[in-house]
């Protein structure tokens, strides 16, 4: 609880204007809905700026539907990630407004409109195979009201493709670079821009790419400054952080 | 080279106002100074917003002095990291304005003043032993004109210490969380704020902390959103990225 | 063999009251039943306080049925873990009293009643996906006569959910914390209680969670004291150890 | 804050018997002392049953002295771990009552007497070289009021040594097993007792013992039940958890 | 852009013989074709000596067809790797000239003839199971105009098989050695020849071969000189580099 | 070629009794049969004491049949390992004398009888799930003429089962110990016998057993002497080495 | 205790010829001497064929002296490994008969003569730097009465050196191969002999040799049969096992 | 032995022109000199094109001197690597012609002149700290008669430095790229050239660079083709292979 609010609340209690039980609830900050299988965090938008996101992996379609109902009742916008097409078929029956983004494997429901930013997030990929992760990042950022520019398949093996699109990248407020294999693109882009760069390693590759560990290490050790990194294939995390930065 | 500048330059050439050799140099963008042992990147401030930083590890004091001379001649502000006290003793002889920050192991020279931000970066550590990395981050951010608030030793073993300082953390435009051992602090702080969080794992710990790998993994897998991560003990990187974000 | 018993036995032999062959058997302590494919350890309850547990992975339904017959003949209570629904269909044909717990993937047969403790074990999970491992722990503890309180989905991303249930957790004699991803919940709970905490990492997560290695490392390096750790996804082991502690 | 206390406090505020500022402090639970370099957690004994422990690694003797002063002023018993003899020489000048345990590298100050348990903790080691870790566990347990029995150098290469001391081990309320190299002793002891076993891997060994990773893995995968594990060389953690269990 | 060409171009501009927009395009070096899902690098043959290769993994048959069309239009020879038989069935419908190599999982289209070298590349394998990787290397090298000699199944367990074929190996201009399991063959061959050796570890093996990591490490640490290494199972890379060397 | 034979051969040549081409062949020692897909090492029995073994993984049934034909023509006894039941169905059509061992996944053909040893190899397993690997070892040893004693399911969790069979183990000329999970059985047996012990880690286990890496490390670091180790699940290798030792 | 002895003992007790207390001692098999810091296993020679070995690492010279006194009193031959020259200077003052082997870092005391075998152990190394480990193996084997032949510096980079000494290697009853870097020598030798081969990886190498992990993996995955492996740099273990085999 | 020479030799024997003992020696190919501590491989220049190289690590100055004497007697050129300045002080006393290269830590003795190539090897480094490894590569290549061009400190953080020197790199017959940290430079250069590229990872970096493992993985997974890789810090290996290729 924020200190100012706490003080106000206690003064209300002291003045007899607030009930002790209500005050306890508020201090306990129990802003969540209790389902059989989950405690939906309704206060997250207030606390973090964004409502709770539904991570679909390991949840049944029914569980997802249940959480979506609670969120819709609370007029929260919904973003569900890592949701298969099969699950979405079940979900959309009870959520007519739900939209599915197949490449991104995301579901969204707009329960209230939010404005779009003037500034944009550039999402840059090394290869065609990184596109799914890139779309997860793009849909996340767009859902949170960000303008997005996609610059795909500009890996360093043919670096002129990158230079050709450099203006778009340099014009962004935040840049996301997504790459598998050796992940060198992050360093090269990082050396050419003056805005924050979020690097996303992908599990694209074979042998010693070790399911994305190699580009992760590459990105953590970049000789270029201004690069921060998220988990392997974590397009959502990159889009989320980019949105935070783009709204600063 | 930016597309607009390239166009202008070519039109100058076409108009006979620019010399072909000069144009070649500009297109080659040779904005660096060649020393025996290094090519100092003088164009970096223009390109990245910040001048080249001198990474002191693996360089002799003499090499550092040489690079500092070139930068001073070009009126660039200087930040040197990972510089031991012994090296600084030699450096300061030829750089009277150089200042040494012992805990941070940083050297700075102010060759032109830069303004300080209104908004601030909060730097939060789990324990006393994380302080050196925190100071590297703090000095970096301050050198680049950021106001910094330090919130040290608020690890989750005594979580009330953290809640007591939560207002300062929640008021920041950007938050850096620095922790060794299991690094859980990043997730807890990440769940309580609505601004970007840069997590820095440190090599503090023993046994299975594996020199910082454990908190790194913790931070990459955080259940809280909005967290991006830098290399182990990379206080500089965190301060640099935080500065980029704080200036957005 | 305990020293006192050995002395008594030898004095019986010396006094001619005990037969040499019988004495050999007792000293060899051959308290097991020999099947074609297994040696069932019938003395384990006496030695360890609990009868042998049937680990179902890598055993056929027929082998499990065989072991259960021997145990039932010896009036031992039965707990089988990691048993699929398919195997249970076969098992229950010859074991009418066998009960199946689907989420926990456990089978139990009560061959003699045991009392339930007054004190309870609290089982705390970070997320919905950790529930299967939690149920394995819960069924194990309940089978061994422990009262269990379940506190599920209280991960640190929405820490108020945890604080809301803190009274239940602080009231337990033993606490089990189960978490995947970064596993930070163990440290946070550990800092808030004065009873032993058994931490169970789960394989929930992706990328650098490395199938549960990341939360395992987190838990081993916790800055909070009083935490001990078991193998990844080892709900049974946690429930077993918790039962031992709850019965102290 | 416990729910009952919170309710009482709010009723005091409502009744006008408590001051708003005081109530804020209590809710914020600011039970710590702020030093330049640390926030000493004075509420930990109340919360966790034991006062904060001073982890000596990475702290200067002066910092340790400072923390000890605050704790002594608050009449808290002191346990410092991983403190070198050199640091102790400085510490004892301002702490005449401080006692140093050289093998355990621990410092203790008794600021109030605590009773010793009837039941005991057995500490069992595989070899002579595991003794330092064992002593850290033993001093920790003794400092917290536990009777301790030491059973050292009974590794499985000469298993008769173990059987010879089995009565002592089986009579303990809690058993700590400490082993390096392959760490097999934990499994063997675990198969012979009916009390909780805390296993501590040590960094004793060479080559593929990987600084204690091998016995750690051995202990996590033990075929015997009832074993929980702590970090490599973490004698303190084992002694602390054993004390918690022995006091149940 | 090459310096000489840049100079010429700028002089054309200065002389008014070249248009500014055209010059911009040339300097930007936009030698690629933009598809929906890919940017095909048409300048690669000029830059690297070989046209872009289509890496089939993670691309749909339709995407591969699209890229092949662009390349055929540009009269580039085509090599596609890691293409399953199923995908080829679709590909060949619109590419009558496409040839499929099943063991190598490669597709080729000859859009212009290239001469074959006099000197040859020897491809040596340790076992029968390494043959698929070997064929990928062989087809790659042959597609690029190299004569290839195959020496298969001559692993060190029966070293006389190797000595029997030594003349063929010693007569090669470049040697590729392909081995899984422990990969010792590379060192043995390396000690017997005076030409460059490219070593390819394969994922053949089990247990601690770790999917090819073991032969990779073996090859990187070879006591014989003149050995360089490529990624696990990277037959293409070995064939490509061998072709470069064979054409020197 | 053995020095004595070389000398003899050269003297034959010098004396004109041997042909130069024949001598070349003999020196080249080309004792192998060349198939399309393999070079069958016919000289191995002479060189190593045992004929070449057919490792079935990664070979088609047809390839196995081809190698078996060559070996039968050369009157060599045949052992094929890692051969699935499906492949055997094809194999037996052209090899009426082939026998299949299902648990061991081995095929044998006896083309000439060999005598059985008086002394025996004891094969000891920790659990029921280690039986497949044990049978691979047993069939290998028996095929090579060794008497084998099986002592299965005597893991250290119920150590009395082991002591009950200790006489059989101590009477063996060579002992093979096979264990997954933590693999402690090897150390315990190693401490109780005076004959060579070959330890085989198995991939039985979950979580941090890492597919057999944990018992492998345990066995390599055993505090008991006289233990040597083979690859994970390598029952064949253990049986082969045990046969070598049993025939000494 | 062996079953036959146990039966005899019990019959003695039953007949009144043996005392109960004596029988207890014998059954407990307390064949060790209790020192302050160690329990010396005096029964090991009887049980394992060799007396306990003193592993010097982590023991003080005084502790080693103490153990040697007990062993000398019991007329046991002494072998101490990993003993520095500094420790030996202290040891020899109270052990006039102690001999030091500097390269091997071993100490021996002959308290009774043992015969030397006719058959020999061949110890083969890849390079000059593997010699220390080789000498540890050689001294161990010689101390236990084995004839040893040293074949040093015959690594596969110059394989003719190996072939030149092949007669000596092929004539051995047991072969030890010691190699660092990539460890390929073990496979090559293994393919050429018909006696058991013990492979010892050494920590010789740099970069990706990872302190001996690379040759260890090489040796575990050898395509040649009949190879078993010991821990990195474990010359003692190889010598010990070789002695066991040479005495079969 | 080459087949042609073998045939000739045997025909000499058959004709009575060659002695049997001499023939044996030649077939055994005993082209090495036996020292106490080493077998110097004198035939290597004939076999591999280059004489044996003295790897200085783990050899005493005296051993190095001994090997140099044998090589000088055989008129072989000498290259010693990883030789400290201290060792060189001793070496030069008995080798007046020995030259020491301090950065490269190499010693050379020219016992016969060799010609220098027209074509050159370009050695490219990312940073100043990679220079020692680069010099080892350069001295190796120069010793073997190659012209070398050094292009140092052109890492991708300031990519214009690289483009500025691109002509030199593109003009080389072979390119060596040396980089630590994330090693991205190899991919960028690889995408811009049409000659073979040898990549050398260095141990420059901290945290997750893991002593060079990160750039090694980067280089093995490069999206650019034509790159082969050597061990971490293996400047010698790169220079050696480059020389082989440059002489093709």
Would you kindly provide a written description of the structure presented here, covering whatever features stand out?
Chains A, B, C, D, E, F, G, H: GO terms for molecular function: hydrolase activity. Chains A, B, C, D, E, F, G, H: InterPro entries: P2CMN_synthase_LarB, PurE_dom. Chains A, B, C, D, E, F, G, H: Residues 119-248 form the PurE domain. Chains A, B, C, D, E, F, G, H: This is Phosphoribosylaminoimidazole carboxylase catalytic subunit. Chains A, B, C, D, E, F, G, H: Pfam families: AIRC (PF00731). 8 copies of one chain form a homooctamer. With 248 residues, the first copy, chain A, is an alpha/beta fold. The first copy, chain A, folds into 2 domains: 31-109, no CATH class; 117-247, Rossmann fold. Helices cover 40% and strands 18% of the residues of chain A. In chain A, the strands form 3 sheets. Chain A has a 5-stranded parallel beta sheet with strand order 8-7-9-10-11. In chain A, strands 3-4-6-5 form a 4-stranded mixed beta sheet, with helices on both faces. In chain A, strand 10, helix 10 (213-220) and strand 11 (227-229) form a beta-alpha-beta unit. In chain A, helix 4 packs across helix 5 and helix 6 (131-143) runs parallel beside helix 11. The longest helix of chain A is centred in the N-terminal third of the chain and has 13 residues, at 61-73. Chain A is globular. Chain A starts with a helix and ends with a helix. The model of chain A has no long low-confidence stretch (mean pLDDT 91). The A-B interface holds A 2-3, 47-50, 53, 166-167, 170, 173-174, 191-196, 198, 216, 220-221, 225-231, 236-237, 240-241, 244-246, 248 and B 2-3, 47-50, 53, 166-167, 170, 173-174, 191-196, 198, 216, 220-221, 225-231, 236-237, 240-241, 244-246, 248.
């Amino acid at each position: 609880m924020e200190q100012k609010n706490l003080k106000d609340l206690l003064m209300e209690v002291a003045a007899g204007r607030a009930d002790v039980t209500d005050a306890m609830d508020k201090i306990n900050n129990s802003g969540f809905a209790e389902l059989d299988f989950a405690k939906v965090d309704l206060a997250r938008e207030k606390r973090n700026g964004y409502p709770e996101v539904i991570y679909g992996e390991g949840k049944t379609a029914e569980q997802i539907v249940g959480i979506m109902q609670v969120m819709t009742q609370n007029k929260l916008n919904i973003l569900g990630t890592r949701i298969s097409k099969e699950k979405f078929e079940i979900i959309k029956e009870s959520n007519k407004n739900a939209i599915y983004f197949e490449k991104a494997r995301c579901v969204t429901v707009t329960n209230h409109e939010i404005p779009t930013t003037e500034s944009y997030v550039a999402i840059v990929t090394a290869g065609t195979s990184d596109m799914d992760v890139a779309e997860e990042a793009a849909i996340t950022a767009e859902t949170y009201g960000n303008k997005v520019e996609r610059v795909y398949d500009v890996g360093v093996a043919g670096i002129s493709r990158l230079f050709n699109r450099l203006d778009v990248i340099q014009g962004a407020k935040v840049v996301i670079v997504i790459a598998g294999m050796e992940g060198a693109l992050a360093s090269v882009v990082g050396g050419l821009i003056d805005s924050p760069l979020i690097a996303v390693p992908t599990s694209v590759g074979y042998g010693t790419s070790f399911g994305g560990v190699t580009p992760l290490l590459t990105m953590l050790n970049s000789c270029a400054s201004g690069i921060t990194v998220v988990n392997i294939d974590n397009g959502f995390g990159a889009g989320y952080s980019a949105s935070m930065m783009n709204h600063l």
